[in-house]
Structures are given as C-alpha cells and as structure tokens.
Specification:
Layout: E1 9-12, H1 16-27, E2 32-36, E3 50-51, H2 60-84, E4 90-91, E5 95-99, H3 102-106, E6 115-118, H4 119-125, E7 135-139, E8 143-145, H5 147-161, E9 165-168, E10 171-177, E11 183-189, E12 195-199, E13 203-205, H6 211-214, E14 221-231, E15 240-242, E16 247-250, E17 255-259, H7 274-287, E18 296-306, E19 313-316, E20 322-326, H8 332-347, H9 354-357
Parallel strand pairs: 1-2, 1-13, 2-9, 5-15, 13-20
Antiparallel strand pairs: 3-8, 4-8, 5-7, 6-7, 10-11, 11-12, 14-17, 14-18, 15-16, 16-17, 19-20
Bound molecules: flavin-adenine dinucleotide.
Residues 12-18, 35-39, 41-44, 46-50, 171-172, 206-210, 214, 225, 227, 259-260, 302-305, 326, 328-334 line the site of flavin-adenine dinucleotide.
Length: 369
C-alpha cells in the first residue's frame, strides 16, 4: 500500500507541533492531512526560539523532556533540512542567566548544569551588562533556532515534499465520535463558510492555545506574550541573555529578538498594548542599558498554550484514536523534536523510544482528575 492508499491521519492545527508531527508521520509512511485555521496565529511564528531547558530552570519530568528534546534537536533539524533543502537556523550560542547575588545563582534549580560566573566573567560573556548583575550561570549546551523566519518555513516545505496535504483556512468545529468514544472524524468549516465532515479513525490534536475549545476537558489556556526585535551593531551580542522576565536572543544576522510579556489575564485579546511594550523596554534597560538605543525593527504577539502545571499534554486521551500534542506553554520549540517523534510513533502504531515513553504518565491528559 502506498501512503495515499492509507486512510488519512488528520493533524488538527498547522502550527509548530502540527507541522512537526505531520512531518514525522509522513516520514513513517503515513498519509497525512493538516487542517489549519490560520497559519499566522500560530505561536510557532511568534516564539523567540530558545532551546533552554537549563536556562529556564526547569525541573522534574519537564526538565527530562526538555533535555531529551535538546539532545535530539540536531538530528531532527538535519531531517527537516534534508527533506526541505532549507536551513532551520539552529545555533548553539549558549545562554547566560544573570543573578543579583551568588546565593541566588547557587539556588537556581538547574545550577548544577551550568558554569558559575562572577561579575568579571559575566562581563566577558555579556559586555555592557547592567551593574546590578553580579553573578551568572552559563549554559553552553542551550541554544536557539530561528523559528519565525526559518524553521516553520522549512517544516512546511519538508511536509509538502513528504506528501502531506494541507487545508489552510479551514477550522475544525467538532470532533465526531461513536457511542464507544472512538473517533469517527471531524466537522470542519472553510473560509467560505462551507461545513464538511471528514471521516478518520486517527487524528492528532495540535491546536495550541485553542486545544481546549475542541476538547473542553483539556485545561489549556492562553498566556499572551508580546515581543519585539532590535537591530544591533555588528557583533554586539554573542550569547542569549535570559533575565527574569526579559530575554535577548541574538540571531546570526544581527537581529536581536526580545521577549516577552507573560499575560495570563489577557485571554485571546489580540494586539500590542502600551503596558506590554513599556514592560519590554524596562526589561531591556535593566539588563543591557545600551540596547535601549538599538533601533526597533518589528513588534508582534502570540498565545502560549499553557496548562495548570505548565507541562504539555501528550499521548492518548478519552477519545480512542485521538492523540494529544498540545499545551507546551513556553517551551514548545524546545520540545517539538521529542514530541513529534513520540506522537508520530504512537499514532502510526509504532513503539516509541523507552526514554520518551517513560515520560508519558507525567504528561497524561487526566493527571489533574
Ligand atoms: C511570546 C512567545 C515566546 C515563546 N518563546 C519560546 C521559546 O523561546 N522557546 C520555546 O521553546 N518556546 C517558546 N514559545 C512557546 C512555543 O511557541 C509554543 O509552545 C509552540 O509554538 C506551541 O506549538 P503548537 O503547535 O501547540 O501551537 P501553535 O504554534 O500556536 O499552533 C496552533 C495552530 O492551531 C491552529 N488551530 C487552533 N484551533 C484550530 C481549529 N479549531 N481548527 C484548525 N486549526 C486550529 C491555529 O490556527 C494555530 O495555527 C513561545 C511562545 C510565545 C507566545
């Protein structure tokens, strides 16, 4: 049987997780269709692209998933680049977390994974850092990827090259199930208002911050983030700076991505706000005062898919045949490589790697019930 003879596996959402899962499914020979309401609203096009399990100070299963994913990023990127012929913008710049005291530094949850820095060493890594930062941790193993301009495009192209079909501008309205809670299909609506039922027995829910709208038992909610970019003088910043509330991520071409607000009460309200932009400006000044004079280039916002414990929802759910790959909050770019491998294995009837499978109970949908 060729992939197009298989009944299609539907991927519900064409953001970062949808594209990454669709690509991995297609690589396993599955016939895949991505249903995507609005490409441009995906957080995959918003994120700063830090690959930062250590700089983020993660702990427990979240740290384990982040570390496993970080370890897989370069081979995952190599697959995407081979299938698309496009670069993804992966960089191992390392990330520096500054602190106001050595005590604060030594108590950081991931301190054991970093290189401790004193003020002089900090200044070597981050010339121009504000004087209040007296200690730091360098996580040389953490990095970044240019998700907005490169990774998302490369994934789209890799998917098409591997035969994935896209329905862009089409919204999934409902999940259809039989009386035994088995998935039967989905009801969709296209941009002209035409409603259709698509039959399927396997689908992957990758609808980001909107996932709870399709399956209300999932406690996924949006956390809005506003961002901006600055054009730096050449070579002004070598490492990512990850400060409390604000980070600066230098891309290869001299653009620095600055993020991000974390607005839990904003719901899905679109647009920039004066307060959000002021917060970013104050954050830049507190970290790297000279950066306030670097010209701003672009400003944007998006919605992180958050859950009560800030961990993703992965694996099976109450509807048989529906797999979950959502709720990655602020670490979805980092976790895309492990998530897509794990979920593509499960949804295609394969056996996932044991280290990833061992984490499934920690990220199951019913862990709050
Ligand atoms: C400001 C900000 C900064 C971030 N920085 C980082 C970072 O530095 N590092 C990191 O690892 N992560 C970061 N993230 C997190 C990361 O972007 C997300 O975790 C990740 O993009 C989630 O991917 P997703 O596919 O689940 O959701 P999305 O990328 O948001 O995609 C969801 C898609 O589903 C579609 N959809 C929704 N409902 C439906 C429906 N009913 N029918 C059809 N389609 C539907 C939407 O149109 C959307 O395109 C950041 C996020 C934000 C907002």
């Amino acid at each position: 049987m060729t992939p197009s003879d298989h009944p299609a596996t539907l991927v519900l959402g064409g953001g970062l997780m949808g594209l990454a899962v669709a690509h991995q499914l297609a690589r396993r020979g599955e016939n895949v269709q991505v249903i995507s309401r609005r490409r441009s609203e995906a957080a995959g096009f918003v994120a700063a692209g830090m690959l930062a399990p250590h700089a983020e100070g993660l702990s427990g299963p979240l740290l384990q998933l982040g570390q496993l994913s970080l370890g897989r990023v370069s081979s995952w990127v190599a697959q995407i680049e081979a299938d698309s012929g496009l670069p993804c913008g992966l960089r191992t710049t390392g990330i520096v977390v500054p602190f106001r005291s050595e005590d604060e530094r030594d108590q950081y949850p991931t301190a054991a994974f970093g290189e401790p820095l004193n003020r002089a060493q900090l200044l070597q890594e981050l010339p121009g850092l504000a004087p209040s930062w007296t200690a730091g941790l360098l996580f040389a193993q953490d990095g970044q990827i240019d998700n907005r301009r490169q990774l998302m495009r490369a994934l789209e192209s890799a998917c098409v090259d591997r035969g994935v079909h896209f329905q862009e501008g089409v919204e999934v309205l409902d999940l259809l199930r039989d009386q035994n809670s088995r998935l039967k299909g989905v009801r969709t609506c296209d941009s002209e208002g035409h409603e259709t039922s698509l039959m399927c027995s396997t689908a992957v829910l990758c609808s980001g911050a909107w996932s709870g709208q399709l399956l209300p038992e999932l406690p996924v909610f949006p956390v809005k983030g506003q961002m901006l970019s600055l054009q730096t003088p050449r070579g002004a910043l070598r490492r990512v700076i990850f400060g409390p509330g604000t980070y600066l991520v230098p891309r290869e071409d001299g653009l620095v991505v600055v993020g991000a607000t974390s607005e839990r009460d904003a719901g899905f309200s679109e647009g920039l706000t004066p307060q959000g932009q002021t917060t970013l400006k104050q954050g830049i000044a507190a970290l790297l005062p000279e950066a306030i004079h670097w010209p701003p280039m672009e400003r944007w916002w998006g919605f992180r898919p958050c859950t009560p414990d800030e961990g993703p929802l992965l694996g099976a759910c109450a509807i048989q045949g529906l797999w979950l790959a959502c709720g990655h909050h602020r670490n979805g770019v980092l976790m895309a490589s492990a998530t897509s491998e794990l979920i593509a294995d499960l949804a295609s009837g394969g056996t996932p790697r044991s280290d990833l499978a061992a984490l499934l109970p920690s990220f199951s949908w019913d862990r709050w019930l």
